[in-house]
Specification:
about 350 residues, alpha/beta, Rossmann fold, 3 domains, 4-stranded parallel β-sheet, 12 strands, elongated
């Protein structure tokens, strides 16, 4: 009866999950006498034992690889993922950091780091997925972005039988956790170990050098029209706190909240850090110079950090964090001398 499992994995749990319905249909055909005559009466008589055996095997079959994702769902694989699709540029970077870059078969637009990611097939944008292309690539693992990917699309992928891991790193110390879990799913734990160790060491050093210094009120600006900042429930806020700063909009729980000019002026940041959308310092950052009552303007504390170093939840966030910490510390010295 091996033909029942034609074209499927040699791994038992995968075969059972994908083909039990096919077997039951086949069994029904035999019992109704509609199966090909090649199947003998003796086979029909053995059907009760066959069904009992199938039930026993299903009950004993387990998954050898299990991790929890950021939704709390148990992600299960019976063998290490070999064909992975990433649904966000930052997740693509995390997979490479986990040593699983050579197992990626599809990514979304703007997955441009490392350079090798640019050669991978594109399966749409993070907010507009090409479902047909995803299915054509036959992934055994899809890594999704909780707050970025359309919920309906992610649910549909699960309904179609794909294994989905949901990620939403909100703190710097969650980045090595994701690298570790992704490495477990991909079977690349040894490759990921050094990356995790280096990250933890660098994070501890930055924390020791800056976290307990005199607080500096900091406004992080993503964009100018509309005026977009960072709330207290995202990575940028964690980086500001690491640097001994205080996010002037830490009390907003929304991700990338729109704020008003009046709110910025009222909260009077002592440092303004902008990223924009490109690697170049945005021209609109200098528009703050007209508001001379701002502490950040009077102390000449308008700074820029490339967005890919702060807005992507990857090991490179530590590079952005180091730059921001130096900038906030510069402001601290100007204002207080310590």
């Amino acid at each position: 009866m091996s033909f029942l499992f034609k074209g499927t994995s040699n791994n038992l749990p995968t075969r059972l999950t994908k083909n039990i319905a096919r077997m039951l249909i086949f069994v029904t055909r035999i019992t109704r006498g509609t199966a090909p005559r090649i199947f003998s009466i003796s086979l029909r008589e053995a059907l009760p034992q066959l069904l009992m055996l199938t039930t026993l095997v299903v009950s004993q079959a387990g998954f050898s690889i299990e991790v929890r994702d950021d939704e709390g769902s148990l992600v299960q694989l019976d063998e290490n993922a070999q064909r992975i699709i990433s649904l966000a540029p930052s997740l693509t970077e995390l997979l490479y950091a986990a040593g699983a870059g050579n197992k990626l078969v599809g990514v979304v637009e703007y997955s441009d780091y490392p350079i090798a990611a640019k050669a991978l097939p594109i399966i749409g944008r993070y907010d507009m997925l090409d479902m047909e292309k995803i299915l054509q690539l036959q992934p055994d693992l899809v890594v999704a972005w909780q707050s970025g990917n359309p919920r309906a699309s992610v649910n549909r992928l699960r309904e179609l039988g794909l294994t989905v891991y949901i990620a939403e790193p909100k703190r710097l110390d969650s980045i090595p956790s994701h690298i570790r879990r992704l490495a477990t799913l991909a079977g690349t734990e040894e490759l990921a170990a050094k990356v995790i160790e280096d990250f933890d060491t660098q994070l501890a050093t930055l924390s020791e050098n800056y976290r307990t210094k005199t607080p500096v009120r900091t406004f992080y600006q993503v964009w100018d029209r509309p005026l977009i900042s960072a709330g207290g429930n995202e990575l940028i806020n964690d980086i500001i706190e690491l640097c001994g700063g205080v996010n002037v909009f830490f009390d907003i729980e929304l991700v990338a909240p729109k704020v008003s000019l009046e709110a910025v002026l009222t909260r009077n940041p002592e440092a303004i850090v902008a990223s924009g959308m490109d690697i170049e310092r945005p021209e609109w950052l200098d528009e703050w110079l007209k508001w001379k009552q701002l502490s950040a303007v009077s102390s000449n504390s308008l700074f820029f950090v490339p967005p890919e170093l702060l807005q992507r939840h990857t090991p490179r966030a530590l590079l952005g964090a180091a730059l921001m910490c130096e900038q906030i510390d510069e402001t601290r010295t100007k204002l207080r001398g310590n």
